[in-house]
Amino acid sequence: MNKPRDLKQLDANSILHPSTNAHEFAKSGSRIMQSGEGVYLHDTDGNKLIDAVAGLWCVNVGYGRKELADAMHNAACDMGYYHTFTGMSNIPQIELADRLLELAPNNMSKVFFASGGSDGNDSLMKIVWYYHNLIGKPQKRKIISRWQAYHGTSIATASLTGLPSFHKDFNLPIDGVVHTESPDYFRHAKDNETELEFSKRRASELEALILEHDPETVGAFIAEPVMGAGGVITPPEGYFAEIQKVTKKYDILFIADEVVCGYGRLGKWWGSEVYGIEPDMITTAKALTSGYFPFSASFITEEIWDVVKQGSEKYGSFAHGYTYAGHPIGAAVAMANIDIIEQEGLVEQSALNGQYFHDQLARAVSEKAYVGQIRGQGMLAAVQLMQDSSSKTFFPASTKIAPQVTAECYKNGLIARPLPSVDSVAFSPPLIASKQEIDQIVDIFSFSVEKIMAAL
Ligand SMILES: Cc1ncc(COP(=O)(O)O)c(C=O)c1O
After folding, report:
1. Which of 296, 450, 311 is nearest to 370 (CA)?
2. Which residue in 356, 410, 420 sits closest to 385, CA to CA?
3. Residue 56 alpha carbon, nearest atom of ligand 1
4. Do 339 and 352 have their domain in common?
5. How confident is the model at residue 295 (pLDDT cuts 50, 70, 90)?
6. How far apart (Å, rounded) are the C-alpha atoms in residues 392 and 411?
7. Which of 57, 125, 150 is the pocket-test mutation for ligand 1 (most atoms within 8 Å of CB)?
């Protein structure tokens, strides 16, 4: 068996890592995770770490859950795989679809399964085009996303993503994707502008953008209820109510990207519920299987389904789908995962412990001059770091403050997520985290951030 050192060398020799700085990685090498239980992980250097990010905001029921392993094992023993093209099906996906439609917000009618958030959103983007072509509005094909959004990294969804580093030199965004301003009140509000005034301004800017492009060319608007990778940006007061007045006025479909927010992260099942969003389409992934199996579920309303059916009258089959759509092992894992969420009351726990987490973070660091804001909802939080919060002075980009702080956290046994584009440190612990574990996260974070700030 390879020793850890050998594995790091092999890794460096062989893997193109996603979202990793190729130069820095060559110097520092990888961190190799080996095992986990509950909220803890063990790496091959012998560190025990508390994972305050839940992998990539997904391991909501925690690591090493035997129930999920058993579900996987059983589904693999039962059959392992069969496709779902041409009307073929399997028992786990049927049971899961029925259960998800009961849970989903806003009366969704059908679910489309895929393997992740990117292909879920990609599929919905294609369905937007298909829908508008079939109802005789072929020009209505532009999709409006927001700066700071994250919707994936496929060609179409990286285009929707509103973070410039995902576009530069990739020849993106593609034609037909347009970005409106972000809901980041902290960064973009004018002096003395209230949250509601800011929300109204964002809605009128959206309307101006739609008019500039011609409403007859705009097919859909996509938004995360709370922006994740773009900074854990919660919508300011009234934001989605104002935005939906505009989307409804111009017959623009609303896609809610619940890939991070769905399945209890915000203290309710859905972000759409928290913020009064009435989506026509929804993408969910990540916490659907707590990350144990690549699996996503995208939803459409009855109205859209009716048009998809008309498509089949015209063309025969709905010519879209993936080899692994509705994978029986993924569906079985999702069922077992939802069992855990329900039996352990994790959505309610997310609301209660989320409040506790925010209170403890506030108690520990909100008075520090280097903390500009603590934001988030439920078990999703971010701390905004600043050179001086009283004068609202940001750090120069070269300080790379968020990665410095999270590297120090790691040394002290905590995984927190740097969001360098907004100088913030994000937290999305597994929903099973106890109050004591939340205390541990807050203690290590406050100790680590203090140390980095003192050394600057
Ligand atoms: C809100 C949101 N949408 C979509 C995606 C893309 O999901 P995936 O990485 O599974 O393709 C992500 C991933 O982080 C996400 O946060």
Report:
1. 450
2. 420
3. 14
4. no
5. very high
6. 29
7. 150
Read off the CATH number of the domain in which 42 is found: 3.90.1150.10
User: What's the pLDDT score for residue 26?
Assistant: 83
Establish whether residue 118 lines the binding site of ligand 1, counting it when its CB lies within 6 angstroms of any ligand atom: yes
Q: Name residue, tokens 């739609």.
A: 210
b (16+ CB within 10 A) / e for 171-199: ebbeebbbbbebbbbbebeeeeeeeebbb
Domain range for 407 is 31-61+345-455
Phi, psi for residue 39 in degrees, rounded to 5? -95, 5
Say which residue the tokens 């077992």 belong to: 336
Around 356, how many Cα atoms within 13 Å sit in the side-chain half-sphere?
17
**Cβ–ligand 1 contact at 224 (below 6 Å):** yes
Mean pLDDT of 34-61: 98
207 in ligand 1 pocket by Cβ < 6 Å?
no
454 C-alpha vs ligand 1 centroid, how far in Å?
35
Residue of minimum CA distance from atom 13 in ligand 1:
152
| Alpha carbon of 341 to ligand 1 centroid (Å) | 21
The pTM for the full model equals: 0.97
Tell how far the Cα of 419 is from the centroid of ligand 1, in angstroms. 15
What confidence tens digit (pLDDT) does each residue in 257-266 have?
999 999 999 9
Per-residue pLDDT tens over the stretch 161-175: 999 999 999 999 999
Q: In what order do the strands lie in the sheet with 296-300?
A: 110-114, 296-300, 281-284, 253-257, 218-223, 142-146, 177-180
- Residue with the smallest CA separation from ligand 1 atom 3 is 151
Q: Which pLDDT tens digit goes with each residue over 207-239?
A: 999 999 999 999 999 999 999 999 999 999 999
- The tally of domains found in the chain comes to 2
DSSP-derived secondary structure letter, 320: -
**Quick check: CB of 150 below 6 Å from ligand 1?**
yes
Amino acid present at 244? Q
**Helix 401-411 / helix 435-455 crossing angle, nearest 10 deg:** 120
Indicate the residue among 287, 310, 343 that finishes a domain: 343
Q: How do residues 112-160 score in pLDDT, each as one tens digit?
A: 999 999 999 999 999 999 999 999 999 999 999 999 999 999 999 999 9
Ranges of beta strands (E only) in 24-162 are 33-37, 40-43, 48-51, 110-114, 142-146
CATH at 247: 3.40.640.10
Beta bridge partners of 246: none
pLDDT of residue 3: 52
How far does CA 217 lie from the centroid of its chain?
28
- Pocket of ligand 1 contains residue 151 by CB under 6 Å: yes
